[in-house]
Design brief:
single chain; alpha+beta; Heat Shock Protein 90; 2 domains; five-stranded mixed beta sheet; 11% strand
């Protein structure tokens, strides 16, 4: 039993050492962020990280409410009495030099087993507390990482906003002049002339650049969604109408379906339609000519979910963690803002977008399936986006 106590003591010491090391990690993280605070988001970090650190430190010193040491003390005393009674029942005589020492043996047994039970209970309490400490620190560490990611994202969006404002001011006016000049010059040529087609190409490219600037501004400009009860079928139908020209141009078959008795949803109809449109256009760019896209609304997870599926090549596993990052794209003419914008819209409504494994329309689930999960009404919303112009 002494060996067991020593082994348990070493395990507790190891857990304590791990907890101490993680607390030091908190300390270093909190100190480094506090020293380098230079902006609004950094100021938030400077306040938030020490708070998380203090919670972790004071959380690990809370004592266990169950007094296993006292329980061990009582159990040890009972075991000592039981052993002496067992010896007596076998007719064992407890004499030394003709003197009856049964009372002394009973006292020694009770004291020994009680002490062993007491310290065993203390070790059990220490081990349970160490495990609780490790769980607490792990949870706080995850919260710290999540807060750091949010801070980095906010700083990134602030930088994008400044960049977008500068681009809009410096580039949009020259683009307007270029497009107007190309339109004016185009009137002097016939449609079969190369010069006419060159002017048309200039107009198309200026329109594309103007659309990119508009997308950039919309992604960087936060606003609060106008939340109200909506009819999801109307929202999805509007998104499909907006995507119809692109779908027809690519000869893609699109199907819109929904289950009966869908749960009520409170959302911004314009924003939600924009998110579904972004996912649909993303799917259209992924599938080949004569491909298929399906948009389906159903109930799930206490709210509403909208699936946008296609029979394209799907998303490579190594890119899954990057597809919702702003400006990440695998397309030659893509902006990398479609999925990022759709994800922000879902988050603004208290929901999320996830990629469903093997949810595509192709054989054996080939293709991609993006699911918008929206919570039930009365969920607190935190908006960070607005529709593109």
């Amino acid at each position: 039993m002494i060996v067991c106590v020593l082994v348990r003591g070493r395990r507790v010491a190891a857990l304590r050492h791990l907890s101490h090391a993680r607390i030091q990690t908190y300390e270093k993280s909190a100190g480094s962020v506090t020293k380098t605070a230079v902006g609004p988001a950094d100021t938030l970090a400077a306040v938030l990280l020490p708070t998380l650190y203090s919670k972790a430190v004071y959380g690990v010193v809370k004592a266990s409410k169950t007094r296993w040491d006292l329980i061990g003390l009582g159990v040890g005393a009972l075991v000592g009495v039981f052993d002496v009674a067992l010896f007596d029942s076998f007719g064992a005589k407890m004499e030394v030099g003709g003197y009856d020492v049964a009372a002394l043996v009973l006292a020694l047994f009770v004291i020994s087993y009680s002490g062993l039970g007491f310290f065993g209970g203390r070790l059990a309490m220490a081990q349970m507390q160490a495990r609780k400490d490790a769980r607490t620190i792990k949870r706080q560490f995850e919260e710290l990482e999540h807060a750091q990611k949010k801070i980095i994202e906010q700083e990134k969006l602030a930088a994008i906003g400044r960049l977008a404002a500068g681009i809009a001011h410096e580039v949009r006016n020259p683009l307007g002049v270029i497009r107007a000049s190309a339109s004016l010059a185009q009137e002097h040529f016939k449609q079969q002339d190369d010069a006419y087609r060159a002017c048309e190409f200039i107009r198309e490219e200026t329109d594309r650049l103007d659309g990119l600037i508009a997308s950039l501004l919309a992604f960087a400009r936060p606003t609060t969604p106008a939340v109200k009860p909506i009819v999801i079928d109307d929202v999805l139908s509007r998104a499909m109408r907006l995507a119809s020209d692109e779908l027809e141009r690519r000869h893609i078959e699109a199907v819109l379906t929904s289950d009966n008795d869908l749960p009520a949803v409170e959302a911004d109809a314009d924003l939600l339609s924009q998110a579904v449109l972004d996912l649909t256009l993303n799917a259209a760019e992924a599938v080949e000519k004569d491909g298929r896209i399906a948009v389906h609304a159903s109930a799930g997870q206490g709210g509403l979910r909208v699936d946008v599926s296609d029979d394209g090549p799907g998303v490579p596993p190594e890119l899954i963690d990057q597809i919702f990052e702003p400006f990440f794209t695998t397309k030659a003419r893509g902006t990398g803002l479609g999925l990022a914008m759709a994800s922000r819209i879902a988050q603004a409504h208290g929901g999320e977008i996830e990629l469903i494994d093997n949810g595509g329309l192709g054989g054996e689930g080939r293709g991609a399936c993006f699911r918008i999960n929206l919570p039930a009404p009365n969920t607190v919303l935190r908006a960070e986006t607005e529709p593109r112009v």
